[in-house]
Amino acid sequence: MSDPTPVLRLEGIVKTFPGVRALDGVSLTILPGEVHALMGENGAGKSTLMKVLGGIHQPDEGQIIVSEEPVVMSGPLDAKAKGIVFIHQELSLADELSVAENIYLGELPRKRFGLVDWAELEAKTNAILEKLKVGFNAKTRVGDLSIANQQMVEIARALTVDAKAVIFDEPTASLTDAEKIVLFEVIADLQAQGVGIAYISHRMEEIFKITDRISVLRDGQYQGTVNTADTNEEGVTQMMIGRKLDLSRNESHHELGNVALEVRDLSCGKLFQNVSFEVRRGEVVGFYGLVGAGRTEIAETLFGLRNPTGGTILLDGEVVSINSPYDAIEKGISLVPEDRKGQGLVLGMNCRDNMTLPQVDDLKAGPFVADGAEIAIFDLYRDKLDIRTPGWKQQVGNLSGGNQQKIVIGKWLSMHPNVLIVDEPTRGIDVGSKAEIHNLLRELAAQGYAVIVISSEMPEVLHVSDRIVAMYSGRITRTFTSEEVTEDNLIQAISGIGGDKVA
Amino acid sequence: MQAGQLSKYLKGGAIWGFIVFELIFFSVAGEFLSVSDKAFMDADNMLLLFKQSAPIGIIAMGMTIVMINGNIDLSVGAIYAIAAIVLLDSMTWPAFEGLGDMVIPVAWALALLSGVVLGAINGLIVWKTGVDAFIVTLGAMLGYRGLVFMYNGEQPTSHLNWTLVDFAEAQFLGLHTATWFLLAVTLAIWFLMTRTVHGRNAYAIGNNREAAVNAGIRVGPHMMINFMIIGFLAALSAIVFYSESGSVNPNDGELYELWVITAVVLGGTKLTGGAGSIISTFGGVVAIQLLRKGLAHLGADTSTVNLVIGLILIAVLFLDRQLNVKGKEELKV
Amino acid sequence: MAGLTKSQIGGFLARQGILVAFALFIIGFTIANPRFIDPDNIMGVVRSSAILGVMALGVTFVVISGNLDLSVGSMMSFSTIVVLDLHDKIGPTLAIPTMFAMTLALGAFIGFLVAFLKLNSLIVTLGMLSAIHGLTLTYSGGKNMDIADKEGTWFSVFGQGDIAGISVPILIFLLLALVLGVVLAKTPFGRKVYAVGGNGTAATFSGVRRARVVFMCYIISAFCVATAGLLQASRSLGSQNTVGQGLELEVLAAVILGGASLLGGSGTIFKTVIGVLILGFITNGLLLVGLQFYVQFVVTWVIIILAVWLDIAAKRGKLWSPIA
How many structural domains compose chain A? Predict the structure, then answer.
């Protein structure tokens, strides 16, 4: 490439929010016909950068330059008109409408009197769908499509305009391998037409397969750009986290007690089948697998949120049936759920009330809630977990992600459960709090809790688990002890390759 | 997929199935129980049914688009009453004295204008303040009703114009004027919702508001236009009804919002917006009127009609839920 | 920035706006007509607000739990008619508990539909509004209901009596407000009502049995409605079978005016009482300055929208909505 004109250039973008410098002098150049990966940990500033680019936030400093012309983006639509198109991770489709209407949402072709020009709409849409080689047509209702096909509709939107640059935000999160190949072909097509592609993804293998250059953000700061051919996963990881990825395994083991939880041949429809495992007191068992492998669903079944279609659950050697979370809590199971804001907390309630919610019935002085007992519990776990809040009256919605998560963990620790299940305990939490939470989980096991940790982050699973259960597509493929687990055999097990032979 | 398709057809056709069921039931039961000698499926009776459906039906078309858009309008009964007062009273205004029968189109225009303005006020408040449409129109329901009373105290407002009465009582091709209005409105609104950009955008807004905003659809003006349309239709409904009756009480139109919403929900429009069909709403309107007439045919009084309609509304909601259950694996929250 | 910032003023108005508005009203009307703050007049207002107020207490629970109850008006007609009818048939001593049982049964039915079958509360209670209205008409045969011996019954004590110079409806209203206020603010059940309304999923994930909580809210609402029916019947000793028609919306207006969000999770009994009193004083104040009763409809409209608007404006930090 002999210095072609960049299709899109960002120069020294600074964006601050009250108390945070979300973007600190970020520069980025996207050339025509290249696939440019944008990488960084959660909270590194990728999504803020995209919002600035899309005109949802205005930068405090710096410039956006499209084809060498400085521009001000007033919104996503303005960006699109200037040739910058976004393919979002979260689907933003109207599922009652047809594929064609979704693709041309907001820009339906008109005839006179504000009528929709259906013929033109259908022709244009089918031309785009042709390119994508999908098995549905313009008239299909979006709600009737699979998630993956809905994603293709989202991608089809990018092809409606003469795009200069297309930004893909985690486009493969819900795609099957076959669908990924189609997507990569689409990207290659765009590339051939001289469109610049920005590609945001966590998946290293994709990054190294399709991108030309990689730019990295860390804590809102631009870390540099490298040619993909000149680097490797380790190098990129080091740029992202500022040090080498800690893939150390858990070394310390505690004395194991008796089996607290045993699961035999547990199934729940298509979600997971014939799952068997056991957890002893003093043990941390990690569940590792891809999104959709059925890990969260197992936790929800154990917590009484789903009805199993087969199999048995034993607590301390006795067969139990768990019909509701209330039931599960009575029997000594606690679940720190995956979705902190949706499932873990009542954001409009204060810290103390959130923490004591599961046991509020037991904290009584006469018919009333015992204020003192509640505050005592809150103070105890605030100190234990080092929760930083001005006081118990603070609304939980105002706390940082890490402190919110500690409130949820404190809520369940204060119940003194026999079995503690934590689902993605450190998602969206800063590095410091992460380490604290990992230590805490180890410590809990040392105190004799039986702990199950579900995580999509390999370092986390390796770091905290005594044993690791690998899952693929609703089944357990292999169980490792922390001595025998390696990066490679773990990845094999969760990809469904040769797992069952070994176990 | 198969099961899903089946339940979809069931839902799409449910209202028509229900109407057929009602017809059969009342015809058969009528043979044994009826207090009158006439058959239920009598042609005159059916024609009358359409005519009587008109006031509720015309408003229901507007409610359907407002609800598809993701809002609701509780003030339609009050707008209906205001438009009726404007219609009847304006014909007596000295300013129009010399117009003769030409006062009729003027009065109509004024009534429709008042409906549009009241709807626009609702729409503007929803748009500019961001207060939920339920609260805005709940307030307006009280406020507009207050305006009705302020106009003429607790006295009825009356004016009979015989030209107008003749027009309202006319029959064309066997159908009453009111029926023609209902059919025309149904057709027009159906056309609006299925064929125009505004209609399709209204669906998109109700279905996924954020996606619509991101796609650059201007949510506010669309909502405001829909509130203006329902105001217009509430006024049109008043014109259809009061042209004939010639007298309006300040309490008229009370509880209309309930009847209208019942018809719309029976027709399958989603409460959360984004889905619904004008033709099914028409079915809902007919089904309710059929039920009223059918029960009356069997000698039941209004009390039974109220009871039955309330329970049917709940039953429909229950069935809808059962048809949408995703199966045993579903998360129990 | 020195002094109060705009957002601080906004925040204060959002929190205490309803009290500020209330104070301004009282001052304004007092200037217009000094009789407004006459103790007799104030008592009169509270007394005439008692029936609406009692119903609003129950609806507050339902709204905080994230649901709606539009059936309270027609349910109140039902209670009134039933207790009047039974009064002559089985005597007041038995009539009152029987009426309460029947009203609670209706509440339980609604609660079952909304809480356990998880049906949309707006439509369920809309349907029940119509159904209970029909039930009442069927029960009464479409006729008005009157007590035969209006002079000789002690039944009138609830609506017309006095204890220590304070009228009984006021006492019942305040007592019930106190009890329910304490239940909502101080008991585990009250806490769970807020949790369920604030985030029902999170409440379930915390072991709160959400359906039971919602069910109980409808039972409480039905209990309040039965009490209101008793007050109404006892006050008039005869009634039309549409006596409660339209009250559901006035009740809702009072609750919203008190600052409860229709999304659930916020509101208090105290604020609802203030909301009820504001409505009452507006009516009274307008009458005292010589305006007709229906002017209050218009004023209520303006006040409700302003109250809710200022509330959400303070929360989002902007006066005008961001809707494009």
Answer: 3
Residue A272, burial from CB neighbour count under 10 angstroms (0-12, 13-18, 19+): buried
Q: Say how many residues make up chain B.
A: 333
Tell me how many residue pairs between chain B and chain C have CB atoms under 8 A apart: 169
Same domain, A283 and A422: yes
Distance CA C151, CA C156 (A): 9
Contact C294, B149 (CB under 8 A): yes
Tell me the β-bridge partners of A262: A278, A314
Q: Is C204 on the interface with A (CB under 8 A)?
A: yes
Query: C324 contacts in B (CB within 8 Å)?
Result: 213, 218-220
Residue A318 lies inside a defined structural domain of this protein:
yes
Spans of chain C, pLDDT less than 70: 1-18
Its domain, for residue B64, covers 43-317
Which residue has 């056991």 as its token pair?
A278
Identify the CATH number of the domain in which residue B155 sits: 1.10.3470
What domain range is C88 assigned to?
39-316
Residue A276 tokens read as 């068997």
A59 in the same domain as A183: yes
Summary mean pLDDT of chain B: 86
Helix, strand, or coil (residue A15): strand
A168 lies in which domain range?
8-241
Cβ contacts (< 8 Å) between B303 and chain C: which residues? 133-138, 142
What is the Cα–Cα distance from B36 to B32, expressed in whole angstroms? 10
Beta strand A35-39 pairing with A196-200: parallel
From first CA to last CA, the distance across chain B in angstroms is 24
The chains found to touch A (3+ Cβ pairs under 8 angstroms) are B, C
Checking DSSP bridges between strand B175-176 and strand B171-172, what pairing results, if any?
antiparallel
Domain count within chain B: 1
Residues of chain A where predicted confidence (pLDDT) is lower than 70: 1-3, 18-20, 42-43, 89-91, 173-174, 243-247, 428, 430-432, 497-503
Strands (E), A207-258: 213-218, 221-227
Q: Are residues A224 and A265 in the same domain?
A: no
Residue A232 shares a structural domain with residue A153: yes
**C78 contact A CB<8A:** no
CATH number of the domain within which C177 lies: 1.10.3470
In whole angstroms, give the CA distance from residue C109 to residue C114.
9
ipTM: 0.83
